[in-house]
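Hey, I'm writing a tutorial for new members on how sequence and structure tokens pair up, and I'd like a real worked example in the thread rather than a made-up one. If someone can provide the structure for the chain below, I'll link this post from the tutorial.
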Amino acid sequence: MDKVLDKLNWRYATKKFDSSMKVSKENLETLLDAANLTASSYGLQPYEFYVIEDADTKVKLRAVSYDQSQITDASYVIVLANKPTFDATMIDDYIANIMKIRGISKENLEGFSQTMKSSLLGLPDANKNTWTSNQAYIVLGNLMTIAAELEIDTCPMEGFDKAQYNEILGLTDKGLNAAVVLAVGYRSAEDDTQNYPKVRYSKEQIITHI
């Protein structure tokens, strides 16, 4: 079987982490580089990442995460925070970054800028929030795949109070919203879930070739 598929079969949503095992800083940086390199619509990256290692902060987050032990036992908790709304500044900043990195004039990017603005700025705030949150989920999927390649365990988590996360981490003041959480660490030998057969529909059931 292809090595990538081997790793995807190996991974599972870890329910219990071994708190005595720590993901190395080197591997953490690899994961964060992968997050930063993940594709996003137009390349806008309408999100930020918060890496939680501090024990006291983890305890506070666990209390508003239905007391799930992954929050305190994992090496790191990565909070993927989307921008629930935005204005032209987000696009202008992105254009400025393209100019800086690629050495392209503002005039040559004006068409691209206007395309993004006409497509995105007129959206209602609820739609903007949905769109930016969807971008964060693309990162989530990529992070889990790269972590599996490194044989690092993860657990994607939506079971938490977003408003409380925003308050604890000061996200609202920064124009951000906790979209989804990824616990990162190493599975505990006591986590029986790792021994369960993986449950998926057959490819014939969910894939249509046209």
